[in-house]
């Protein structure tokens, strides 16, 4: 059994004229990250590896994850190939995960995440929003052989709009 937890980076800021890869998180993105990361502990496997795109907004999202879940930032692998909006490239990266790891948490970008989930999940999601988390399980012991899996959990900021701050 392989488990993949996809996390779309938090909302980024468009306030400064920066290259896309250099955009930081917005104030709302930081707040959403704290909210979501306080809710996902229950769905996390006991052991996992964490990968992140090299874009600033995904790095910052991964940093907030590590702070909220007592996970060392040094254990996050930042990968150039995860700075992609294409699900085929994302699929290629996931399928190259070493099989000694059964649980992968990946911080990435849309449209790659939503399209990947719709290709490999068992139901359609219109959109994985910023700071959205989707947990998929696959009935295989080999990342290379991923086929249709099961979406076992979705956690989106909108699920918690009713909660007061």
Rg is 15 Å
Structural class computed from helices and strand pairing: alpha/beta
Low-pLDDT stretches are none
How many helical stretches?
A: 4
Helix-strand string: EHEHEHEHEE
Write a concise synopsis of the structure shown:
Helix content is about 25%, strand content about 20%. It has about 160 residues and is an alpha/beta fold.
Report on this model:
With 165 residues, the protein is of the alpha/beta class. The protein has one domain: Rossmann fold (3-Layer(aba) Sandwich). 25% of the residues lie in helices and 21% in strands. The protein has 4 helices and 6 strands. The protein has a 6-stranded mixed β-sheet, sandwiched between helices. The longest helix is centred in the middle third of the chain and has 13 residues. It starts with a strand and ends in a 10-residue tail after the last strand.
Strand and helix map with partners:
Blueprint: E1 2-8, H1 27-37, E2 49-53, H2 56-68, E3 76-79, H3 87-95, E4 103-108, H4 112-120, E5 133-138, E6 150-155
Parallel strand pairs: 1-4, 2-3, 2-4
Antiparallel strand pairs: 1-5, 5-6
Offer a few descriptive terms:
alpha/beta, six-stranded mixed sheet, Rossmann fold, 165 residues, single chain, 4 helices
């Amino acid at each position: 059994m392989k488990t993949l937890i996809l996390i779309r980076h938090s909302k980024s800021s468009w306030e400064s004229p920066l290259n896309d890869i250099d955009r930081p998180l917005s104030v709302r993105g930081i707040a959403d990250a704290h909210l979501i990361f306080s809710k996902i502990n229950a769905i996390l496997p006991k052991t996992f590896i964490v990968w992140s795109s090299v874009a600033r907004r995904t790095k910052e999202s991964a940093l907030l994850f590590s702070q909220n879940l007592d996970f060392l930032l040094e254990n996050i692998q930042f990968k150039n190939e995860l700075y992609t909006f294409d699900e085929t490239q994302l699929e290629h990266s996931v399928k190259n995960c070493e099989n000694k790891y059964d649980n992968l948490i990946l911080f990435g970008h849309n449209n790659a995440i939503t399209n990947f989930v719709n290709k490999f999940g068992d139901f359609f999601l219109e959109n994985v929003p910023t700071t959205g988390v989707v947990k998929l399980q696959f009935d295989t012991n080999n990342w290379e052989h991923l086929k249709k899996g099961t979406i076992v959990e979705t956690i989106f900021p909108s699920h918690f709009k009713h909660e007061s701050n």
